């Protein structure tokens, strides 16, 4: 099995380049492709934006149609595409319905899974407090313990409050470029320490389950 994994930014790619081998081992090959932001699903599905703009959801209809045609030609080596994105302030059911609508409009339809971090990718870090403490021994325990897994609470700000000097207020004041740099640093320092089988984030466990089902073959695949 080959896995094509689409993520919305470079820090997400860094995380998954580290975590996917821990999840699937040598049972699958994979490639993680990063985009320049999440964007939004086009209202006019027949006129998706130019893929060169590298905005993930804007280009998803075109991407999935392309994967459907490409994967149809793979006879002896099955492949699947996995979208990984943040929920942010979207409605989970509505987002899943829209994504499945795009997938069902493809002919041929690629093998695909949609894995949504709730509320943000940092929720997957906060599902493993041991990994955070390993990377940041002086992390604020009170802040970490106040977090409820996969809650809508300003997830990256919660992590920043725990590990960044001065917390999210200080980091935010430095601008989004500084926030992005810090998120990449979290990816590089926390992800290698994560235990993928013991994470408390439900959305991360969903991601792990879907990857393992795909890697293990058709008998284990359940939507």
Strand content: 5-15%
Count of separate structural domains: 2
Q: What is the string of helix and strand elements? A: EHEHEHEHHHHHHH
Which strand order spans the largest sheet, edge to edge or round the barrel? 2-1-3-4
Folded structure, characterized:
By secondary structure, this protein is of the alpha/beta class. The chain has two domains: about 1-120 and about 200-220, 3-Layer(aba) Sandwich (Rossmann fold), CATH 3.40.50; about 120-195, no CATH class. It contains ten helices and four strands; from the N terminus they run βαβαβαβααααααα. The chain has helices at about 10-25, 55-70, 90-105, 120-125, 130-135, 140-145, 155-165, 165-175, 175-190, 200-215; strands at about 1-5, 30-35, 80-85, 110-115. A four-stranded parallel beta sheet has the order 2-1-3-4, with helices on both faces. The longest helix is centred in the first third of the chain and has 17 residues, at about 55-70. About 40% of the residues are buried. Mean pLDDT is about 90; it is low at about 45-55 and about 220-223.
Key descriptive features of the protein:
10 helices; alpha/beta; disordered C terminus; 4 strands; 223 residues; Rossmann fold; single chain; 4-stranded parallel β-sheet
Provide a compact summary of the structure.
This protein has 223 residues and is α/β, with parallel strands linked by helices. The chain contains ten helices and four strands; from the N terminus they run E-H-E-H-E-H-E-H-H-H-H-H-H-H. Helix 1 (10-24) links the parallel strand 1 and strand 2 (29-34).
């Amino acid at each position: 099995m080959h896995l094509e994994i689409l993520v919305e930014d470079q820090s997400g790619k860094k995380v998954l380049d580290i975590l996917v081998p821990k999840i699937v081992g040598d049972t699958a090959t994979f490639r993680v492709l990063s985009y320049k932001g999440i964007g939004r699903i086009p209202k006019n599905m027949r006129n998706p934006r130019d893929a060169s703009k590298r905005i993930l959801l804007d280009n998803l209809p075109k991407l999935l149609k392309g994967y459907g045609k490409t994967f149809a030609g793979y006879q002896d080596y099955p492949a699947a595409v996995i979208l990984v994105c943040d929920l942010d302030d979207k409605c989970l059911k509505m987002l899943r319905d829209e994504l499945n609508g795009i997938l069902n409009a493809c002919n041929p339809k690629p093998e695909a899974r949609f894995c949504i971090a709730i509320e943000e990718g940092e929720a997957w870090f906060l599902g493993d407090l041991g990994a955070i403490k390993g990377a940041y021994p002086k992390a604020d325990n009170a802040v970490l313990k106040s977090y409820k897994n996969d809650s809508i609470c300003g997830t990256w700000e919660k992590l920043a409050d725990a590990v960044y000097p001065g917390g999210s207020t200080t980091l935010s004041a430095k601008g989004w470029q500084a926030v992005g740099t810090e998120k990449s640093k979290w990816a590089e320092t926390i992800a290698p320490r994560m235990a993928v089988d013991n994470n408390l984030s439900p959305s991360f466990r969903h991601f792990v389950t879907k990857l393992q089902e795909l890697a293990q073959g058709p008998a284990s695949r359940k939507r």
